[in-house]
Structures are given as C-alpha cells and as structure tokens.
Amino acid sequence: MGVMPSAIKAFPRPLQVMQLFARRPIPVSWRAAVGETAPTPALRYPADTFGYRNDSRIHHRGKPDLYANWCIVIARAVTQFRRFARFDAAAPRVAPEAYTALVRRVVALAPWRPPFPDAARIVVPGFASLHEFTRAQEPAVKAGLSGRFWTWVHPTNWRMALPSPPGEQERTAMEVIDEVRAGRPVQLFITDFPRIKVNHSVLVYDYRVTSEQTVEFLVYDPNDAHAPGRMRFDRRLGRFIPAPLLGVDVPSFRAFRIYYSDRN
What we know:
alpha+beta; six-stranded antiparallel β-sheet; two-stranded parallel ribbon; about 30% helix; globular; disordered N terminus
C-alpha cells in the first residue's frame, strides 16, 4: 500500500531521531529579510491542488459519506503529481478505471525522488490540472489512493512524543523557507501532542517574513478545497500558530517535515 512498506525498514528508531536533532546546528538568524517572500510560489494555487477535501472527524461528524484521515496521503499526492505527472487537456478522456490506474502509478513513486523529465512523466489525459482532474474524477481518484494506514503508524510520528530540543522548531521554519525559496513545496505533519486536538498535514508553498520574530507560511490544506491556509512561526514562542487554518482551534502546535527522504 502506497510507498510505506518498501521503505519502512529504513526508518530510524526514536533514539536515532534524537541524535539526529542533536547533530544539526541551530540557526542564529533568519537568513531572510523582513518582507521577503518566495521568488515564485512552489505551487500554483489552486491548479496544483486537489479539487475535493479531506473531511474532519470532529467538524464533519455524522456525515454519511465521511472521507476522513486522508490528509497526509492527499498532501503527499500533490507532491507526487507535481514531480511525476503531467496533464494533457487536448488528449481524449478515458474511463474512470483507467484514471484510477494512473493515480496508483503516480502515488506508488516515492515523493522524495527527483522530478521526472517531461518525456518520462505519467500523462493524465483530458484535463489541464490536478485540481480540475480530481474535482471531475473524484471517485476514480479516491479509488486510486492508498496507504492511509501507514501514515498512522509512520515511524517518524514518534517525534511528536519526544521533547523538542532547543531551536528545533526554528530550524524547521528555516528549512521550510529554504526549500520553498528553491521552488520545492514542503509537507508538514502538525500536532499539539499531548493534547491531540490537532494531528494534521499541510503542504507549504509560499512564505512572507513579517518581522524579525515571525514568518507567515501559505499552505495547501487538504481539509479546505477552496482557499489556502496560513500558519505563523514565532521565534519568541518557538512554536507555530494557526493564522488561520480551517478547523484548527489551538493556540499553537509543532511542525515536522515528512516525506522528504527515505528516512522521514
């Protein structure tokens, strides 16, 4: 299912995770000027995002066709389509079963692999963008996604139960800035553990340094198919803050990068 089983043996144990944190330097400055934004957003919003939402078990409780706990899979799939697929609006559309098979091919590829050259990309015929495709072929796309269970038991989820080393969240914020600056969206797992009012995943695609102490990130939120979300990092708190994120009603949370290498 998904990319998890073939890679799971490579993941570090909790002690290795803590040792990895300890070895990495803590930034002493933003390396970014107040007012700076990404040269170009790392995603085209909404074209490069899904046209349907992941439901929330809290906010959509009782919904008869509840589609919940797919946020990590959907956010990861956005990266996979961006790296390994292309859309050909001029090509004839195919049967839903064929689209399901195409989705399975795309999401079977590890999201940390280098992007495919155009000639090697998996072609999705009949649509101009991921947003248009997923909105029109929602049942076929859902049938092609898999791996939800493995996102729940992903070994690096252990990090949320470990204490944050000094500077860990600031380092994460700086890594996100560097990646988005280079044109690469960043998938984050966000949590307020041990409260567990939010365990969610978003994809950062733009930023703005709003002061010497704060930076605001623009994110694709799988729970919202209509508008981007916002989250802010505050150096004084050493935490991220919803600014806002749909349905996230907590004062702050931690964020962890996921699916950027075979160990994360």
